[in-house]
Write a structure and sequence with these properties.
Elements: E1 10-13, E2 17-19, E3 24-26, E4 31-32, E5 37-40, E6 43-44, E7 62-66, H1 69-77, E8 93-95, E9 108-111, E10 114-121, H2 127-132, H3 137-144, E11 149-155, E12 157-159, E13 165-169, H4 177-185, H5 191-198, H6 205-217, H7 224-228
Parallel strand pairs: 7-8
Antiparallel strand pairs: 1-4, 1-8, 2-3, 5-6, 5-12, 7-11, 9-10, 9-13, 10-11
Helix pairs in contact: 5-6
Length: 231
């Protein structure tokens, strides 16, 4: 697998604000900010999440979204004003060259003095529907596998402008994120793969528990509330 080259990311943060016609509170609207950035175990200081139960936290401290996906979305959605600049998907890092196909679960990434580790992919929710003004946006993100990913913060610190994201260790080269996303959303009953994924030590506990439930119940979780906001 090609290892991603170092990247100087655009860094984005956002405050809480009303989202969509019903004014649900969200921090999904993020804009590019200049450093220095103080990064804590729960993300970038000054960044916000409206639903701390399902967003943010130690295993989802920072969200990274590939900038090249914007071209694919523009082809799929036609002209959409959100796709004219980084931040459409509520990401904290925007780069080119790093995608779900060439990053792996457990990748250890240095950003200045900060050390991050890739913990899981994104499970898109209905806030993307409100953000884009489309009832199917979360479903499309899930179906295409263009989800982006989250980092946990292994070593917090302050990072200056111009710092690069650099891959420093890859403990799970057989587990590109695209493989796990495919298992989560497409090859959902592959028992051998589910059993193998559970043993990936660097995988977020939430995904491990989800895969374990599938093995125990031989069933797939109901995605409707997450994708639409209602059952």
């Amino acid at each position: 697998m090609m290892q991603p080259a170092p990247q100087a990311p655009s860094v984005l943060v956002g405050a809480l604000a009303p989202l969509g016609p019903d004014g649900i509170v969200s921090g999904i609207a993020k804009t590019i900010t200049a450093g220095p950035w103080r990064i804590t175990p729960h993300g970038i200081e000054g960044d916000a999440q409206g639903d701390r139960k399902h967003h943010g936290g130690a295993e989802k401290a920072l969200h990274h979204y590939p900038r090249e996906h914007y071209a694919a979305w523009s082809n799929q959605l036609n002209v959409h004003p959100l796709l004219q600049r980084a931040g459409a998907f509520g990401e904290n890092f925007s780069t080119t060259g790093w995608t779900e196909r060439n990053v792996c679960i457990g990748d250890v990434v240095r950003f200045g003095s900060v050390v991050l580790q890739l913990s899981q992919g994104r499970q898109p929710c209905f806030r993307l529907n409100r953000r884009f003004g489309r009832d199917d946006m979360a479903v499309l993100v899930q179906r295409t596998g263009r989800t982006g990913w989250y980092y946990r913060v292994r070593e917090p610190g302050v990072v200056a402008d111009g710092a690069e994201l650099t891959l420093v260790d890859r403990p799970q080269p057989d587990w590109p994120l695209s493989r796990l996303v495919h298992l989560l959303y497409v090859d959902t009953r592959n028992r051998d793969a589910l059993a193998q994924a559970i043993e990936v030590a660097e995988l977020a506990d939430g995904w491990r528990a989800l895969f374990r439930r599938r093995l125990e119940t031989d069933g797939i979780e109901d995605w409707r509330k997450r994708l639409t906001g209602h059952v």
